[in-house]
Amino acid sequence: MTHDSDEGPEATDAAPAAGWAVDLDVAATLTLPGGATVPRDEFFGWLWAECGDAGLLGIGEGTVGVAEAAALGLVLGLLVVDAAAAPPDRDWVGSLDTQTVCCWFADEPAARRAADLLATVTGCRTRGIRPLAAAMPGADWRDAFAPIEVPGFGVVRPAWEEGTAGTTAGRTTLFIEPGCGFGTGEHETTRLCLAALAAWVQEGGRVARVLDFGSGSGILGIAAAVRGADRVTAVEIDRRTHDAIRDNCRRNGVQDRVSVLGELPAATTVHDLVFANIVPAVLLEHAERLRDRLGRGPEGSCLVLSGLRAEEVGPVAERYARLLAAAPLRTTLGDWHCLRFVVGR
Predict the structure, then answer these.
(1) pTM value?
(2) Where are the domains of the chain?
(3) pLDDT tens digit sequence for 257-298
(4) In CATH, which of 3.40.50.300, 3.40.50.150, 3.10.20.310, 1.10.10.970 is domain 145-343?
(5) What is the 3-state secondary structure (H, E, C) of the chain?
């Protein structure tokens, strides 16, 4: 799981191509210069308040992969697909006693001023100050992000590439900013959901009104809008990503058709298509609520569920099949699975 501190205006961006970095070891609890003792998350907010207008561009809180988390005893049960939806006991990075953090600054003076300030914080140790170019010789960080082909759907391109989002002859082009939330097109579950959208449209399914539950970067709701949806509701509990979702909507020209919310809307609104690409525990918890968001007219509606490993498919499929009185179409990519239910036809 990777964390980016979202307290500042550009914290969700990947590392900039130029500038300076300050590398830190940050304890779980810190004492600020005024004597206040705060947890790590509040420390990051304080750092943004102190340095956000003085050259601080981003805070990268590091990465803990599945294997490393297991070795540290941090994995409890299900694997995490969507970091924004992870319960606190699977916030692996936040669970570390000491976190390795990289702060990005516009220039060397800003980095050194911040290092001087951080020297007065108990629980924060500066490991070094370095030009970012030294860590990325001869390369722009954006070179790591290439267009992602999704068979049956089209292509997902990085937001900075030129071009306009749209669909031609059944092939859709999207633009998504990497690092702003789960869903850049790289993960198998995202691609499975995009393929399910394309299949539903190809079958003549309506997409006038769409719900994207656990929206992450907003990619699935945006894809539906580009495919012709009149109204999309993107629900993401991590409100810190909402501005990034809206930025992705603007980049794809669908900002007038996508609403971003922090929780599910009232059940009085029904949808032609519902996405839920999220952890199985959340899919099971919200099964009835998602069922109630599906339209039941003769045109039919579609529910797309993903974020499932093989051993997790059975309980989710059985629960929804019973609630919807329908059998799912199951698709697989790598180790991940997707369930698509069609109801009302």
Answers:
(1) 0.65
(2) 2-135, 145-343
(3) 999 999 988 878 899 999 999 888 889 999 999 999 998 878
(4) 3.40.50.150
(5) CEEECCCCCCCCCCCCCCCEEEEEEEEEEEECCCCCEEEHHHHHHHHHHHHCCCCEEEEEEEECCHHHHHHCCCCCCCCCCCHHHCCHHHCHHHHCCEEEEEEEECCHHHHHHHHHHHCCCEEEEEEEEEEHHHHCCCCCHHHHCCCEEECCCEEEEECCCCCCCEEECCEEEEEECCCCCCCCCCCHHHHHHHHHHHHHHHCCCCCCEEEEECCCCCHHHHHHHHCCCCEEEEECCCHHHHHHHHHHHHHCCCCCCEEEECCCCCCCCCECEEEEECCHHHHHHCHHHHHCCECCCCCCEEEEEEEECHHHHHHHHHHHHHHHCCCCEEEEECCEEEEEEEECC
